[in-house]
Design a protein that fits this description.
With 491 residues, this protein is of the alpha+beta class. It is built from 16 helices and 21 strands. It has an 8-stranded antiparallel sheet with strand order 17-14-16-15-19-20-18-21.
Length: 491
């Protein structure tokens, strides 16, 4: 708020506000307020352009006055990653919204960056299709999901949202509108009523890192369009401002079932995941939930006690020895035709054993993060054969079980450390876990954290692609006007 207030005293600040109002319209340009911040860094102005050409004018104005620009969608991940060095103009993409697709037979859809993912799915569902993207952040926009390369359970079969990208329109740091990938055949226009969102605050950069496509900028004389398009994924708005994305779409599956089984140890999860993958059941997702176990009562209740004797899980009913309270669940999603799904579910239930359960609704925790606001959130990526080693390493370093949730079938999970842990304690846990992961080609990234932790720890760890990422930044944003400092290495 102080930074925003000081901006009104700078020579020319009111003139910049007037020019932003001319570009975006008076209701859509203003000095920033206390809620307009990025990972704790307060903006000076907020601009909500009504279309790509207005957004381009905002970027040209920023370039002319040497101002920085940070895009924001729905604000669901605005506190993820590193704080930018400076936020002059927060470019809200809320009016860059819309969904365009052929009503019948089209396998792609062009979607405005500011369109809420829920609105995208609701619009596509009218013609029996969906975007195979289920990012956990409620209310997230497509642009925010791509900027963070945020993926949910469906990443197991379909890959991350960026893997489904076939074209983009984006603005470079100088305000030039660039189209790459699939040639655009539909003009950017007004959103359909169901796809519009209000002008409230909206999404920002996430914890992703620009993928390996960054090397294409530097290693080839001619850059294929799709490589450039995918460069923007995970870049947190630091390489370009996404205007629209052309994504693959597919028919909504007629049948869906979730087959769950309780699990007690990470090693058991490892064995079960290997068995499921070897059975070739074509799962759409394999998700793990390992909550912190509830401490057992000090006084052991005998099996003959009336309070437990009639329970369906009692040894006298199941015919199996009593086991401790389950530490968590492994859940497999099957999709397809109803008869095919039913047959595969029966095979999977037989594989997982008598403790497995077949449900037609997802568990409550499905597609949700294990962390809450104020926690230190970690993302662990490791080959699936070593996922159990990563979870054990995290438990050993923390000295207690840690909530872990995510895609066990591909070795990508999130974990939560209490926000009350001192920064030096978090740093020691990270060092221990990263030491274990280093030999296993894995990595652990701090997705979000309280400000003292964010300032004190290395959010990214060792990053082999950092030199290529640095060169990509120099190529696409040489003056560091777009979200400076949000990318690894302070880029």
């Amino acid at each position: 708020m102080a930074a925003a207030a000081r901006s009104t005293d700078r020579p020319g600040a009111l003139e910049i506000t007037r020019k932003l109002a001319e570009i975006c319209g008076p209701p859509f340009a203003r000095f920033a307020g206390p809620a307009d911040e990025v990972a704790g860094r307060t903006a000076r102005w907020v601009a909500v352009p009504g279309g790509p050409h207005a957004a381009a004018e905002v970027l040209r104005l920023a370039a002319a006055h040497d101002l920085t620009v940070v895009p924001r969608g729905a604000g669901t991940k605005i506190d993820w990653g590193a704080a930018p060095a400076q936020v002059d103009i927060m470019l809200d993409t809320g009016r860059l919204a819309g969904v365009w697709h052929e009503p019948q037979g089209s396998s792609v859809a062009e979607i405005g960056a500011g369109t809420p993912l829920r609105a995208v799915q609701a619009t596509l569902e009218r013609t029996g299709r969906r975007l195979p993207v289920d990012a956990p952040s409620p209310g997230a926009t497509l642009g925010g999901v791509l900027a963070a390369d945020e993926a949910g359970p469906l990443r197991h079969r379909h890959g991350s949202p960026c893997a489904q990208l076939v074209g983009v329109r984006y603005l470079d740091a100088d305000g030039e509108l660039v189209s790459v990938g699939v040639p655009g055949t539909v003009q950017f226009g007004q959103a359909a009523p169901s796809a519009r969102r209000g002008g409230g605050p909206a999404a920002g950069p996430g914890g992703g890192v620009a993928p390996g496509g960054a090397s294409a900028v530097l290693g080839a004389a001619e850059v294929p369009g799709l490589d450039v398009a995918r460069l923007l994924c995970g870049s947190q708005g630091g390489l370009g401002v996404l205007v629209s994305a052309t994504m693959r779409v597919q028919a909504v599956p007629a049948g869906r079932v979730w087959v769950s089984r309780p699990v007690w140890t990470p090693l058991e999860v490892h064995d079960l995941v290997r068995a499921v993958l070897a059975a070739r059941l074509d799962p759409a997702a394999i998700e793990l939930d390992l909550p912190v176990p509830v401490p057992l009562p000090r006084r052991r209740i005998p099996p003959s006690h009336p309070s437990v004797a009639g329970r369906p899980d009692h040894p006298a009913v199941t015919g199996r020895p009593a086991r401790p309270a389950a530490a968590g669940n492994l859940v497999v999603l099957l999709e397809g035709g109803p008869a095919d799904v039913a047959e595969r579910a029966d095979r999977l239930a037989a594989l997982l054993g008598p403790e497995s359960v077949v449900n037609h609704v997802a568990p409550e925790w499905w597609g949700r993060y294990p962390f809450a606001p104020g926690d230190t959130a970690l993302r662990i990526e490791v080959p699936i054969n070593d996922l159990h080693a990563a979870v054990y390493a995290l438990r050993d370093a923390a000295g207690t079980p840690v909530p872990v949730r995510g895609s066990a079938g591909i070795g990508a999970v999130h974990a939560a450390l209490p926000g009350s842990l001192p920064p030096e304690r978090v740093a020691s846990i990270l060092a221990a876990v990263r030491g274990v992961l280093l030999a296993r080609q894995g990595r652990c990234v701090v997705v979000s954290a309280p400000p003292p932790v964010r300032r004190a720890v290395d959010l990214w760890g060792e990053l082999p692609i950092l030199p290529r990422l640095r060169n990509a930044k120099a190529h696409l944003d040489p003056h560091h006007r777009l979200a400076p400092g949000r990318l690894p290495g302070g880029l």
